[in-house]
Write a structure and sequence with these properties.
alpha/beta; three-stranded antiparallel β-sheet; 12 helices; 7 strands; about 50% helix; elongated
Length: about 300
């Protein structure tokens, strides 16, 4: 093994030496020079080397683009090794989607007001809910061929990579990290609700209830977050505690499949949202969901009217 790696705390030095011999042939000289110092900064250099070897393994044009990108943005190699050292889940994601690293280094793009959009400034800055919506809209334009559940799960992985790097590199406090994870969950739930809602409105029309003046008014569903998500303290592995509430009983206006009661509409809508966020996909599920905190617990209706919830 090159003496430059002598002070790195490899668990299996022989295996690390063999892995290094293949890696250094793929890296430009500038990156080979910085590799020892980067490996010395991370807690699991063996794991990082193994994943880096897999990351650089593809051949052809894709591999050439990856190496060129790392040479152009040397910090990306630091981010890669850090992710490979801290998270097997995100490491597998990067191996499967090598281009994901490029989402951390897009050059700033002017916003409508002329200042750089915060959502394109890399990992140095947190993202507000507005930033996340902007970023998801941009992501959707390139993910139109994905099923809704896969698209939601893929976007979650992208954002978890950014949030995790900010966390372990000391760029975010614990409170900032849990807030970003919570804001991301809110966004993904809102998108799932919007996707599912359109399908049922087309089929059954808009849920309605009589207002004080006797006129029919639209009735909406809200997803109420409890537990850690409700307190904006979500962590990386938390499940999410949810309650589905709608304003009032009544009947839908009718669509291609006719009118149904608001209760039936919103129960079906809640089931559809849950399927989108809990379904196993090649990208994994978006979340594990716990509904036991709703009125009547596991025996209660999946979606509950607000008057019924208040009575409970």
């Amino acid at each position: 093994m090159d003496p430059a790696y002598a002070n790195i705390a490899f668990v299996d030095r022989d295996r690390a030496a063999a892995t290094l011999s293949g890696i250094v042939q793929s890296l430009p000289a500038t990156l080979r020079t910085s590799l020892p110092a980067l490996l010395a900064q991370i807690p699991a250099p063996d794991e990082a080397l193994n994943f880096l070897e897999r990351y650089l393994r593809p051949e052809g044009e894709a591999a050439s683009r990856t190496v060129s990108y790392l040479e152009r943005y040397p910090t990306a190699l630091h981010y890669l090794l850090t992710a490979f050292s801290y998270s097997r889940f995100l490491s597998e994601t990067l191996v499967q989607q090598p281009e994901l690293i490029t989402t951390l280094h897009r050059p700033p793009r002017p916003s409508d007001a002329g200042a750089p959009s915060r959502s394109t400034r890399g990992i140095e800055h947190s993202r507000s809910p507005e930033d996340l919506r902007e970023e998801y809209a941009r992501f959707e334009t390139s993910a139109f061929d994905l099923s809704p559940a896969v698209a939601l799960a893929r976007f979650k992985r992208r954002e978890y990579l950014r949030i995790m790097l900010r966390d372990v590199l000391g760029l975010a406090t614990l409170a900032e990290t849990t807030l970003e994870l919570s804001d991301l969950a809110d966004l993904l739930l809102a998108r799932a609700l919007r996707i599912a809602d359109q399908k049922f409105v087309d089929s059954h029309g808009t849920p309605q209830a009589s207002g004080p003046d006797g006129r029919q008014r639209p009735v909406e569903l809200v997803i109420l977050s409890l537990g850690k998500l409700g307190g904006q303290e979500l962590n990386y592995s938390s499940d999410i505690d949810l309650m589905f509430l709608y304003a009032a009983d009544g009947e839908t206006s009718g669509g291609t499949s006719g009118a149904i009661t608001n209760s039936e509409f919103f129960v079906r809508l809640a089931q559809s949202v849950l399927k989108l966020v809990t379904e196993a996909t090649p990208e994994g599920a978006v979340f594990r969901v716990d509904l036991r905190l709703r009125p009547q617990g596991g025996e209660g209706d999946l979606a509950v009217s607000l008057p019924a919830a208040l009575d409970y």
